[in-house]
């Protein structure tokens, strides 16, 4: 009888999770509608990398560019979708194929946020609202769902957070392969997550498990091997670590110019896209696990350094920071909103 009750509960949980996943997926499709016949991201100079992904969607592996040899997973999955979907009116079918794949990764990301939020807070209302903050965020609408690969990159980082928080360090080598096949920057940012987690454990417990250090080293080594093999397969290794070389050149050529007008404009851009989230989330970060917050901010610092090396400005920094911080920002905003509502209700009553 006990086993029957447990199995029945498990089936119900699976059904509810599937229903939520479908709802999140449909929300993502709706949010990404603009790329179907309103505008084409590949025509925008600021999103020139989407043209490389579109080439893979149309031509498969033959469309892989030497500029982004590692970023093949998302556009190739979209290529498989592109081959089987029929033409739909005036829709851009390349963008539609990418939207389906990106909506899938984004909806799974929302499910991960839901599960982790509930695991931490034990309150479903916090968990659902954190999903809404995630799905309706500027960065998800304007980067995850616009023919790019940020959705899968963000998913891989959420999966890394889930593995760390669940103490499933054995998954790290597999995550290195998955993440680096999605986007090469997963290697330094993911390593930042793990390193921040290990630093916190050393600070907290004055000790560290050797097995975790070995798995961290394995994570980095396997990530490097994955990137090298991708380069070797795509362009015979002629442009190995091309993007890292470009970042290094940009960093060495950076000059500091104090243009206060430009600084002010960049601050405004940053605030409109991420600043309000930080203002809302930061007061509630103390309610989240300290190791999770510390490792997330450590990874965010890594992205800032990479962004500076790449020469990004303003809202681009917000984009780089948001992806590794998506979980703590979403849950932090959710908790803050409920605290504000509770205080308001107390005053009314």
Outline the secondary-structure elements.
Layout (H helix, E strand, L loop, with lengths): L1 H30 L2 H4 L11 H11 L13 H12 L8 H29 L2 H12 L2 H7 L5 H16 L6 H11 L3 H20 L4 H26 L6 H12 L6 H22 L8 H21 L4 H34 L1
Helix pairs in contact: 1-5, 3-4, 4-5, 5-6, 5-8, 6-15, 8-9, 8-10, 8-15, 9-11, 10-11, 10-14, 12-14, 13-15, 14-15
Q: Quick recap of the structure?
A:
The protein is mainly alpha-helical. Helix content is 77%, strand content 0%.
Key features of this structure:
single chain, 349 residues, mainly alpha, 15 helices, 77% helix
Written account of the structure:
The protein has 15 helices and no strands. The longest helix is centred in the C-terminal third of the chain and has 34 residues, at about 315-349. The chain is mainly α.
């Amino acid at each position: 009888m006990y086993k029957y009750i447990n199995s029945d509960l498990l089936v119900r949980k699976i059904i509810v999770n599937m229903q939520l996943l479908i709802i999140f997926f449909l929300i993502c499709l709706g949010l990404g509608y603009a790329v179907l016949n309103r505008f084409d991201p590949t025509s925008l100079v600021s999103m020139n990398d989407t043209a490389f992904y579109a080439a893979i969607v149309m031509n498969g592996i033959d469309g892989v560019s030497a500029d982004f040899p590692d970023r093949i997973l998302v556009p190739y999955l979209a290529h498989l979708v592109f081959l089987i979907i029929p033409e739909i009116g005036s829709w851009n079918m390349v963008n539609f194929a990418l939207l389906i794949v990106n909506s899938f990764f984004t909806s799974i990301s929302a499910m991960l946020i839901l599960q982790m939020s509930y695991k931490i807070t034990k309150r479903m209302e916090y968990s659902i609202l954190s999903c809404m903050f995630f799905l309706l965020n500027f960065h998800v609408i304007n980067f995850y769902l616009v023919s790019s690969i940020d959705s899968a990159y963000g998913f891989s980082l959420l999966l890394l957070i889930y593995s760390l928080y669940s103490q499933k360090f054995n998954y790290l080598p597999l995550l290195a392969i998955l993440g680096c096949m999605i986007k090469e920057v997963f290697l330094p940012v993911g390593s930042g997550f793990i390193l921040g987690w290990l630093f916190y454990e050393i600070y907290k417990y004055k000790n560290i498990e050797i097995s975790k250090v070995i798995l961290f080293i394995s994570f980095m080594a396997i990530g490097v091997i994955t990137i090298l093999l991708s380069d070797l397969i795509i362009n015979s290794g002629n442009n190995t670590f091309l993007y890292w070389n470009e970042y290094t050149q940009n960093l060495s050529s950076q000059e500091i110019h104090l243009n206060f007008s430009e600084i002010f404009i960049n601050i405004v851009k940053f605030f409109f896209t991420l600043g309000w989230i930080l203002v809302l989330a930061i007061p509630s970060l103390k309610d989240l696990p300290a190791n999770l917050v510390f490792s997330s901010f450590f990874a965010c610092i890594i992205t800032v350094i990479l962004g500076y090396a790449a020469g990004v400005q303003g809202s681009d920094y917000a984009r780089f920071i948001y992806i590794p911080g998506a979980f703590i920002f979403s849950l932090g905003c959710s908790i803050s909103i409920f605290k504000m509502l509770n205080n308001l209700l107390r005053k009314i009553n």
